[in-house]
Amino acid sequence: MPGHGGALPQGRRPVKAFFDSDIWWSFTRSPVVVLSAIVALVCIIGAVFSPLIAPHNPFDLASLQLMDAFKPPSWEAEGDPLYLLGTDDQGRDMLSAIMFGARVSLMVGFCAVIFSTVVGVTVGLVAGYMGGKVDALLMRIADIQLTFPSILVALLVDGVVRAAVPREVHDQIALFVVIFAIGISNWPQFARTVRGSTLVERNKEYVQAARVIGLSPLRIMRSHVLPNVMSPVLVIATLNLSFAILAEATLSFLGVGVPPTQPSLGTLIRIGNDFLFSGEWWIAIFPGIALIVMVLSVNLLGDWLRDALNPKLR
């Protein structure tokens, strides 16, 4: 067939369209964003594959040596080349502990954001599409929750759940409780944004046509309205990932986060805080730096994505 030889394979068309898009052009023109993406990718890879690439397993009790406790970073006079960033009070390698801790922090952050996104998008779609008393009720609930700081809501939810379940199962459900507490404290942001977009979309012609042909409200919301309100949701989710990581670190630092058997970066900072003024500064400083770098890179990516998806700034 004429011209058939120059056609791209079906699978490569979306890829080529992405690399030709304004978003990719904006990404490559910003060195700060590129650097942030690289740093975030390194953090994610190091955390996800920590059992494979970490120099040591800091939670293998058989391999820990108390004689190696409080070793400074390897570049100091009393440092050991085996422990690049030193060791903590139990002789655990700090670099490995940070990699394993970042894995827990990222898992909690991603799961909490997914949970809050599902809840917020569902509430926002229903409120915006149904309108009336349903809209008023759901938005007043969101307004009430927004009057309280998210971290206080997370602390309250965590405390209520822990008080409602037997003490012997606290450690088993602690991870799920933290995810639920952080996720349930962030859904109003998604709900309000999706509701505003849905109010605009529900009066457009394609929604009116779907109603005329007899589609159910659920199908119209899922198949027609939802795909057109997801751009701001993606931006909010990216920005909320950094908040979720910080919220988890705060809860763990206060001692109500993940259990000690699954320490996150917040737990490592809390442990190191006890030795900060006795000279073992690296136990708290290095996990703190890792947390700052991870959150900052995600925040910079979220800010860029917000600008890149804003049609007014193109």
From TrEMBL:
<feature type="transmembrane region" description="Helical">
    <location>
        <begin position="32"/>
        <end position="54"/>
    </location>
</feature>
<feature type="transmembrane region" description="Helical">
    <location>
        <begin position="281"/>
        <end position="305"/>
    </location>
</feature>
<dbReference type="InterPro" id="IPR025966">
    <property type="entry name" value="OppC_N"/>
</dbReference>
<feature type="domain" description="ABC transmembrane type-1">
    <location>
        <begin position="102"/>
        <end position="302"/>
    </location>
</feature>
<protein>
    <submittedName>
        <fullName>ABC transporter permease</fullName>
    </submittedName>
</protein>
<feature type="transmembrane region" description="Helical">
    <location>
        <begin position="169"/>
        <end position="187"/>
    </location>
</feature>
<dbReference type="InterPro" id="IPR035906">
    <property type="entry name" value="MetI-like_sf"/>
</dbReference>
<feature type="transmembrane region" description="Helical">
    <location>
        <begin position="225"/>
        <end position="247"/>
    </location>
</feature>
<feature type="transmembrane region" description="Helical">
    <location>
        <begin position="104"/>
        <end position="130"/>
    </location>
</feature>
<comment type="similarity">
    <text>Belongs to the binding-protein-dependent transport system permease family.</text>
</comment>
<keyword id="KW-1003">Cell membrane</keyword>
<dbReference type="InterPro" id="IPR050366">
    <property type="entry name" value="BP-dependent_transpt_permease"/>
</dbReference>
<dbReference type="Pfam" id="PF00528">
    <property type="entry name" value="BPD_transp_1"/>
</dbReference>
<dbReference type="InterPro" id="IPR000515">
    <property type="entry name" value="MetI-like"/>
</dbReference>
<keyword id="KW-0813">Transport</keyword>
<keyword id="KW-1133">Transmembrane helix</keyword>
<dbReference type="Pfam" id="PF12911">
    <property type="entry name" value="OppC_N"/>
</dbReference>
<keyword id="KW-0472">Membrane</keyword>
<keyword id="KW-0812">Transmembrane</keyword>
<feature type="transmembrane region" description="Helical">
    <location>
        <begin position="137"/>
        <end position="157"/>
    </location>
</feature>
